[in-house]
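Build the 3D complex.
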Amino acid sequence: MPDSVLVHSPATLSNLGCGFDVFGLALAAPYDTIRLTRSATPGVRIQHLDPYNLPTDPARNVAGVALLALLKQVPEEMGFELEITKGIKPGSGVGSSAASAAGAVVAANALLGNCFSKMQLVDFAMEGEAVASGARHADNIAPAIFGGFTVVRALEPAIDIIALPAPPLWVAVVHPQIELKTSDSRKVLPATVPLGLAVRQWANVAGLVAGFMMADYDLIGRSLDDYIVEPARLPLIPGLAEARTRALAAGAIGGGISGSGPSIFMLNRTEATAQAVGAAMGGVFAELGIACNVYVGPVGTTGARVVEED
Amino acid sequence: MPDSVLVHSPATLSNLGCGFDVFGLALAAPYDTIRLTRSATPGVRIQHLDPYNLPTDPARNVAGVALLALLKQVPEEMGFELEITKGIKPGSGVGSSAASAAGAVVAANALLGNCFSKMQLVDFAMEGEAVASGARHADNIAPAIFGGFTVVRALEPAIDIIALPAPPLWVAVVHPQIELKTSDSRKVLPATVPLGLAVRQWANVAGLVAGFMMADYDLIGRSLDDYIVEPARLPLIPGLAEARTRALAAGAIGGGISGSGPSIFMLNRTEATAQAVGAAMGGVFAELGIACNVYVGPVGTTGARVVEED
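Done.
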């Protein structure tokens, strides 16, 4: 077994239109780079090789908390030296905290001869998400660990994640520099939804799963629409409606809010379309005088993975 | 083109657990037998070769109404002689009216050189359902026409039905002789549902689609549960909870209310299990002093189909 591994852990989209709290999709890039080294000294020591001033106290760092949860299940006394280089900007709405937590436990599992299942790794990494957002949720963790398109069917009584293949797709994400706290994004959600609207939503959920599994791009496009969560969050993200209109005009298949926002994602058939769609969405925010970052990349078929062993 | 055709049009399950108003599944049997013959006399004449005293006025007969809707789209002046032998008992909760309506339009399409698409046939047959239940709905019509497992993603702005393969499965259906009007079944539905419960429901919807497409029987079983509609209808169907308990004990994968009830379906891996499950459910109603019929049959890979041309 190696003493040290290098892991790339990717950005992810959660919710994915109609699949609030359930769907996730892995990107191939950007990714966090994680170096994890076995140590005889118990506990976790963290260094951040990036400019984001994230906490290095393991009890307050998402990757540290995930590793501490994993270490509780390891009988031997051991510890880890963890170096994180964030390739995913924190708060960018593409699963930054999930990438660090997932990458750390995938790295630890490699150092331990892969003794844990992916479901167990999700369980550990969710402890990191709980520190980041106050809630144990797996919608970004699942694609960060399994890759492709994921369905979090249940967390109780057991974690039940369905990992599905995704057809070739290019993602364009625009991250407008709007302050939007996850807690505020949660506050606008309706407590109840009309039954008829819920039915339309799960009809789209069924269509999106079938569309991904059959690589039917038109069906994916028709099924992405979210009738429940996006309408509630629309007022929080100026430019969202216009960005969607221009993205579709530029050839996007469809899209929506990434996670709890403010980032917006669009799925596309080709890299060229994704670039045009990213530029079109960026233009909307430029006109509004809101700075933004645009990412374009292919869907990732693998989740966090070891790229080097020493 | 033939002058006369014989069509078998199968029983179907709608809702299918978590997929209220969206999912459907075709059975191979029982089926209605429909003889349709071209006539130079406009309009539709109907004969029923069964003991159910169904209306023979085409404007009040589900198959007649469906044929009249189709005839409106045929430029030439023509009519049909229709003979129906119901193999599916009306009111048995396995899509009896849908089978007659779907079978009639599939037969007419064969007499017309299959000039209509399956989506158009669904549209015509839904007119028959509207006469039977007061609402245009396609959850039984879709599997009766496409076969296999179907998703009614939308009826507006266009009919959008996704036809998916179903893995080998045996269905056991018990039809207790309880009077339960569709309108009463509708009345108990909640107007709104808590968002958290809607999320759990669409997580199961996603799981069930993936389970069918991957032929993953365990996933199908875990995903069938309906958190919204079945709890509301449970008080209307005495014996439902106990029938489910005994069906699962006898080896069923899972199940629920068929359509709006009172029939109960269970999916099974083998014919032997389906027989045992049917007997176990029948036993529950026998103990309650409620007469019931039990059907056991395989899932149908085709919908209504021509079996003879003259």
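The longest strand of chain B covers residues 23-39.
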